[in-house]
Small ribosomal subunit protein uS17
Amino acid sequence: MSEAIENRNGRALVGVVVSDKNDKTIVVRVETLVKHPLLKKYIRRRKKFTAHDPNNECKVGDKVKIIEFRPVSRNKRWHLVSILEKAV
C-alpha cells in the first residue's frame, strides 16, 4: 500500500517523530526555514503534524517522510510513507 501512497500527488514533508504513544498514530515535527521580511535573516519554524502509522513501526527520534492524505480522523490528515533514518 505504501507504493500507492508514494505515487499520490500532494505535499510531502520530512520530519522527526516526537511521539508514538497513540495506537497507529505518530506526531511528526517538521522544521522549515523562513526568511524574515525586515531583518533578512532565516528563522527556523517548527510545526507538528499527526500522521497515520498503520504498522506501528516508528519510534521516537526516527526521521520520516509523510504525505498529505484523506482525513483518517479529526486531526490526522497525513500518512507515513517511509522511515528515512532510524533513531539510535
About this structure: The mean pLDDT is 93. The helical segments are 2-6.
